[in-house]
Design a protein that fits this description.
Two copies of one chain form a homodimer. With about 110 residues, chain A is mainly alpha-helical. In chain A, about 55% of the residues lie in helices and about 10% in strands. A three-stranded antiparallel β-sheet of chain A has the order 1-3-2. In chain A, a hairpin with a 6-residue loop joins strand 2 and strand 3. The N and C termini of chain A lie far apart (about 35 Å).
Chain lengths: ~110, ~110
Amino acid sequence: MVQLAADDRLDEVFHALANRTRRALLGRLAAGPARVNELAEPHGMSVNAISKHLMVLERAGLVQREGTGHVRACRLDAAPMASAEAWIAGYRRFWSDKIDRLAAFVETAGD
Amino acid sequence: MVQLAADDRLDEVFHALANRTRRALLGRLAAGPARVNELAEPHGMSVNAISKHLMVLERAGLVQREGTGHVRACRLDAAPMASAEAWIAGYRRFWSDKIDRLAAFVETAGD
DNA sequence: CACTCTCTCAACCGTATGGTTGACAATCCT
DNA sequence: AGGATTGTCAACCATACGGTTGAGAGAGTG
């Protein structure tokens, strides 16, 4: 994989997330790996369109393909989201107050 | 302002963030309100291009214009970032472990 | 009033997005 | 081997992005 500048990677991650179909795909993949066909089902779109969305997600590093064969499963890799969230977190003080920070603590330490 | 569906708003916010020039504009506005002219300076672009970027940010609710006059200042409104971060946070368990959660706590409670 | 400064509107251009259809490669199952 | 299933490649299309230039509107200032 080519090493990208941080800004390039942020561009790609935010762009990948800026589409509800792709967010839905990530939501589905959060429940476990799936094949392209399976992913395309719920959306009223062609398998082809889903394949292109998956390539956008793959380019952003959010999805990885497994296996070389017929049954190529797609697997979620949420790691790049961390940098996106970290960027946003730099602005948290502009909307968050102490109660929000407490809520964040409860959420992150909750289990 | 028109009430948008949550997905529409997320589309717009993530799209607004998916561009380094716009992220840089937000970074500048984090230091305080500024006029369009002032914002355009550091980037090697026309004031016109910056104006269009600001409209994207405004459409996402991340920037608000103040004043009707000659000196229209732009002000950061980071609130929509909260929903974007909340969406990402739903995937935090896929990359975060307890140490990361501790770090998040330290960061959010740090000041 | 005339002029300057600031900003937006409008048109344009090249490229990218998001979708389609159709063809094709590759794998699995008889 | 033959055929069904799965997925990508390629071409196409309409629209949106990201930038430019040029014109023009509005507020301040001589």
